[in-house]
Amino acid sequence: MVGKEHVTMIPSSPKTIWSATVNGHDVQAIAPSNAILLDVLRDEVGMLGVKRGCDLGTCGCCAVLIDGEPRLSCLCLAGQVEGQAITTVEGLADGAHLAPIQTCFATHGGSQCGFCTPGFLMSAEALLNENENPTRDEIACAIEGNLCRCTGYQQIVDSIEAAAEIKRGDAPASSPASDPHPNPHPEGPDEPSMPPGHAR
Ligand code: FES
Ligand code: FES
C-alpha cells in the first residue's frame, strides 16, 4: 500500500573542504565529496558566469579551463581538480578591460542571447592560447562541443578569427567596447510621479 512501504534513504556523501585556484585566487569551499565542479563553482565560489545548460555534457555552456585545458564542469567532480588552476569566464577580463576574445564576440555578433557565450569564450581562449593563427576549420573543430541556438555559428567563427588577429598583433587591441565606461553607473531619468495610492 502506498505510504506504508519502507523506503531506504541513500546516505548523503560526507562534506569535505575543497580547495583550488579560481581565476588566480586561492579558494576553499565546503562541499560533498562527490560534488560536481559546476555546482561548486556556481553555488559555493559564486562564479555564475559558468552556465548550466544540459547538465549532460552536450551543450558546452559550462566549459572552464583546468590548468589551461578546456573541460566541461558538469561532467567533472570537484575532487578531480582539487588544487588545480581553474579559469572561468570571469577570469578573462583584465579589470575593466575585456579580453580580445570578449571584445570580438561583442563587435562581430558572436553573442546574441548570450547564454552559450561563456562556454564559447572558454573554448576559443583555449584554442588561441595554443594556436594564434587557426584556420576556420580549426576554429570549427575547437568549438564543436559548444551549441548555440541564436547565431548560426558564422559570427562566432568570425569573432574568434578577429581575436586571433589581435593576439598576433595584426589588428589593434583596443576598441571602444573594451575601454572602461567613464561613468558605468550613470543616473537614470527621474522616476515618473505616480498618482496617490499607486504602488511602484
Ligand atoms: S551544462 Fe555541461 S555540457 Fe551542458
Ligand atoms: S547566443 Fe543565444 S544560444 Fe548562443
Summarize the structure.
With 200 residues, this protein is α+β, with helices and mostly antiparallel strands.
- Overall geometry comes to elongated
Structural class: alpha+beta
Spatially, the strands of the biggest sheet line up as: 2-1-5-3-4
Helix fraction, binned, reads 25-40%
CATH homologous superfamily descriptor of the largest domain: [2Fe-2S]-binding domain
CATH architecture of the largest domain: Orthogonal Bundle
Put simply, the count of helices is 5
Largest sheet data = 5 strands, mixed
What distance lies between the first and last C-alpha atoms, to the nearest angstrom? 52 Å
**Radius of gyration, in angstroms, nearest whole number:** 21 Å
Binned strand content? 5-15%
Topology pattern, helix = H, strand = E: EEHEEEHHHH
* CATH class group of the largest domain: Mainly Alpha
The counted number of beta strands is: 5
Compounds present? Answer: FE2/S2 (inorganic) cluster
Account of the 3D structure:
This protein has 200 residues and is an alpha+beta fold. The protein folds into two domains: 15-91, Ubiquitin-like (UB roll) (Roll), CATH 3.10.20.30; 100-178, [2Fe-2S]-binding domain (DNA polymerase, domain 1, Orthogonal Bundle). 26% of the residues lie in helices and 14% in strands. The chain has helices at residues 37-44, 100-107, 117-130, 136-142, 154-168, and strands spanning 15-22, 25-32, 63-66, 69-72, 85-87. Strands 2-1-5-3-4 form a five-stranded mixed β-sheet, with helices on both faces. Helix 2 packs across helix 5. One FE2/S2 (inorganic) cluster (FES) binds at residues 52-55, 57-62, 72, 74. The site of one FE2/S2 (inorganic) cluster has 11 residues, from loops.
